[in-house]
Write a structure and sequence with these properties.
Helix content: 25-40%
Number of strands: 6
CATH superfamily of the largest domain: Head domain of nucleotide exchange factor GrpE
Structural class: alpha+beta
CATH class of the largest domain: Mainly Beta
Number of domains: 2
Order of helices and strands: HHEEEEEEH
Mean pLDDT: 89
CATH architecture of the largest domain: Roll
Number of helices: 3
Largest sheet: 3 strands, antiparallel
Length: 121
């Protein structure tokens, strides 16, 4: 199972790289979809998050922070780097969604180094 998840991640990264370079991603994405179907047949579901979703400790793994001056965006998803996986039968999360999260920084506080993402969120 872990090997299939890693393979999916590698294919997904390559698809994003091709997108960023303006190249055709159809063939690579078809391989990623095949792996997703295999995982589905094994009882593994893929889930993700959307920008603006609130942080959920059991479903999200912070990779970093994006500072913002909007308190309403604090501890919400800024962008997703990798999807999550869970077992359909047990609802056990095999891997949390990997994302960066907004961190509110007041305009009158001097900006300093960003704290560790795991502690911030």
């Amino acid at each position: 199972m872990a090997d299939l998840i890693r393979l999916y991640d590698q294919l997904d990264r390559e698809v994003r790289r091709l997108d960023a370079a303006g190249e055709d991603r159809k063939l690579m994405w078809s391989f990623a979809e095949d792996v997703a179907q295999i995982l589905d047949r094994c009882g593994i579901e893929i889930f993700s998050a959307e920008p603006g979703d609130p942080f959920e400790r059991d479903r999200h793994r912070p990779l970093g922070v994006v500072t913002c001056d909007d308190l309403d965006r604090h501890n919400t998803v800024a962008d997703v780097a990798g999807v999550g996986f869970y077992e359909r039968e047990t609802r056990l999360v095999r891997r949390r969604v990997q994302a960066r999260f907004y961190q509110y920084v007041s305009g009158d506080v001097p900006a300093g180094p960003a704290p560790d993402a795991e502690q911030t969120v």
